[in-house]
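Morning run. Coffee first, then this:
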Amino acid sequence: MSGNKNQEMVYGVHPLQQALALGKRECYKIVRVQGKPPARLAPILKLAERQRTRVETLPREVFRKQFGQFNHQGIVGYFSPIRTLELATLIEQACQSGPHPALVLADEIQDPQNLGALIRSAWVLGLQGLVVPKHRSVPINETVAKCSAGAVESLPIACVANLKQAAELLKEKGFWIVGVDMAGERPCYEFDFNMPVALIIGGEEKGIRPLLKKTCDFTVSIPMAGELGSLNASTAGAIVFYEIQKQRAQAGSKP
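And here it is:
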């Protein structure tokens, strides 16, 4: 993160290229290691030139000292903050996507890598958006962006003060609230997701908070053969997201 609270750092080749290509955020500058740039940086530098974005270079040792704690791949960029949506706007956009929109509510996920991977899975597996709480959750920061492999630039995200109230509003708008829980009522592959759904996925170790679980219309589980305990949020999410995608595809192929 830069010293300016109105700037956010994006590091790594793919996340930086995605942020520039989508153009949803202003890029203030790019910093890379001095010397002939490797071929993998060529698309980024072309985009920067086209957008007239300033590119600075630093000696390798200075760059390492400044950015060594990040998996930077030799390049970082400073951008305006990620724009989150109002929940009502996210719901409206999701409902415009088709008859069976799917959103995910992330309940107090603390690990930025876990949240980033969850965002990536939600985007590539066709969900319409993510809802995160403003408090007691990891912020959408540079580590989350990196671990999402750039998906944080594309997936619509709403940040809310109260996740329970968000679930209740989603119910009013016609969504069914489905909790992903080890003790779920039925396996996820036996549940019919062909309706507007909002999945609640709990944070590390604690799972879905009891008060939030009471808002669920249904709960689903992920059957497991091993004895290592529960899956992390991003892995559990990916499994259920795929099941939703599969059911949508099957429904679309029926005469």
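The domain at 8-79 is CATH 3.30.1330.30 (60s Ribosomal Protein L30; Chain: A;). Good start to the day.
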